[in-house]
Design goal:
Blueprint lengths: L1 H9 L7 H17 L1 H12 L7 H5 L15 H21 L16 E5 L4 H12 L3 E6 L2 H14 L8 E6 L5 H12 L7 E4 L19 H16 L1 H6 L3 E6 L25 H22 L6 E6 L14 H8 L8 H4 L1 H8 L2 H11 L6 E3 L5 E2 L8 H14 L6 H6 L14
Parallel strand pairs: 1-2, 1-4, 2-3, 4-5, 5-6, 6-7
Antiparallel strand pairs: 7-8
The protein binds NADP nicotinamide-adenine-dinucleotide phosphate.
């Protein structure tokens, strides 16, 4: 039902992926037989959320009306999530066969883009292609020397065409919230417009033990969710200046098996065992939920579109921490896995296609409970059922603001052009 809504809204692309619908219908009918009552409750909550009362009303109403707190993903949602992941892995090449590789980009001479994690994998490809299409690209990276070497190489490759790339490097370490504040202060001080922020940098430390950053947060949570959330809000004045502008979050199909416990964002309470897979999936779901509230709260007149993107299953350095034998197997299945060039297409599409902001605006006017989600095949899709839960999305929003050290009214102030104080700096933005 979510896929049908997205396609109706869309107007670009248009063709519904029939294989996936059949698969979803099969799972739905199976789920229905197994647990009819439970399915009805969750579906109504998700599908009806466009007409649901606002989150404040949902959480109010005294103890008598208080709903039981959900503590984990239901097994049916979990099963559906894994089906979506396996489907993406097996069929992404077929489903995306209509998308050109590389994706043709429009001329981008007047566009300024910040790309985080632009020294490797998908981010490197995104930055290179944007720059080669004429955009002013800021590589926001933790290894500036490597970024300068890459620019030199790209420039040498283009020397025959006489194209002068407009790329610069700024240091940014997502494992330090101070570093994000410094980056945003430096950028905002230019009083220059920002048209596209691409939150690409991410980690998936497969099989690694739990690690806590110096800011006190589980590392997947910080790098994949908290840091991009803080960066997006702190760069708000520049995005307003560049309006119409976009925030593109490179997300993952893995969010479908994620669950965010706002009372245990660091996964340290021992209520459930820490695994890097759960930490990664949860952080990606938290990003979808936070982005959905951001999308909902930004007034249409601000002209800032928020979207999440799935790049597909892509051959990059993201698997560098896997055991050697698994990395070897990973290299042996090139048919199924996208190259970084192929994996960059959905993000580049979200960042540059002129119809994407129209789609975001349509979702907003429909009061759809989630932000736009662009799939690896450059078509809009719907994130998981859990992502549609507005009540928990609001909790994720509130908790995230608290963790990144911003006041609960930060967005309102930013929209009004007022300064906001972040706990990670003494200076007003
Ligand atoms: N590959 C896939 O199959 C896949 C699937 C779904 C989603 N994604 C998402 O796609 C995005 C890009 O991943 P990728 O596959 O291209 O992986 P990658 O090759 O490992 O690239 C990740 C980039 O993020 C940067 N980064 C990591 N930690 C950082 C930090 N603390 N501060 C600043 N930058 C940091 C890395 O910088 P260094 O070069 O300095 O390490 C690198 O440039 C991620 O958000 C990932 O979750 C990937």
């Amino acid at each position: 039902m979510f896929t049908v809504h997205a396609s109706r809204c869309l107007g670009f692309g248009g063709r519904i992926n029939q294989t996936r619908i059949v698969l979803e219908l099969l799972i739905l009918s199976f789920s229905f037989r197994c647990s009819a009552a439970r399915f009805m409750t969750s579906s109504v909550a998700a599908a009806g959320s466009s007409s649901s009362p606002p989150p404040s009303a949902l959480s109010g109403g005294g103890d008598g009306g208080r709903k039981e707190r959900k503590e984990a993903l239901g097994w049916i949602e979990w099963f559906r999530g894994w089906c979506a992941i396996v489907w993406e892995f097996l069929f992404q090449r077929i489903a995306a066969s209509h998308v050109e590789n590389p994706l043709p980009l429009p001329p981008l001479e007047d566009v300024t883009c910040i790309v985080t994690g632009a020294t490797s994998g998908i981010g490197l490809e995104i930055a290179r292609q944007l720059a080669e299409s004429g955009a002013h690209v800021v590589m926001a990276v933790r290894r500036p020397n490597l970024a300068h070497e890459l620019i030199q190489k790209w420039q040498n490759d283009k020397s025959e065409s006489g194209l002068l790339l407009n790329v610069e490097v700024m240091e940014l370490d997502l494992l330090s919230l101070d570093s994000i504040v410094r980056f945003a202060e430096a950028w905002n001080a230019r009083n220059a417009p920002l048209h596209v922020l691409i939150n690409n940098a991410g980690i998936f430390s497969i099989g690694e033990p739990q690690r806590i950053s110096k800011d006190g947060y589980e590392e997947h949570l910080q790098v994949n969710h908290l840091a991009p959330a803080l960066l997006s809000l702190l760069l708000f004045p520049s995005l307003l200046r560049g309006s119409p502008s976009r925030i593109v979050n490179v997300n993952s199909i893995m969010h479908c098996v994620g669950f965010v416990d706002t009372e245990d964002m660091n996964m340290t309470s021992r209520r459930r065992k820490f695994t890097s897979l759960a930490a990664y999936s949860n952080s990606k779901l938290a990003q979808v939920k936070f982005s959905s509230i951001l999308h909902k709260q930004i007034p249409a007149e601000a002209g800032i579109s928020i979207m999440c993107v799935s790049p597909g299953v892509v051959h990059t350095n993201v698997a560098r921490d896997l055991p050697k034998i698994v990395v070897a197997a990973y290299h042996l299945i090139p048919y199924f896995i996208f190259s970084a060039l192929e994996g960059s297409r959905s993000t580049l599409f979200a960042a540059t296609d002129p119809q994407v902001p129209e789609y975001c605006a349509l979702l907003k006017s429909d009061e759809w409970p989630v932000c736009a989600y662009i799939s690896f095949d450059c078509r809009p899709t719907n994130p998981s059922e859990e992502a549609h839960n507005l009540e928990t999305s609001q909790l994720v929003w509130d908790k995230t603001l608290e963790l990144i050290g911003l006041p609960s009214d930060a967005l309102g102030k930013l929209i009004e052009g007022e300064p906001v104080q972040c706990r990670y700096t003494s200076k007003a933005q």
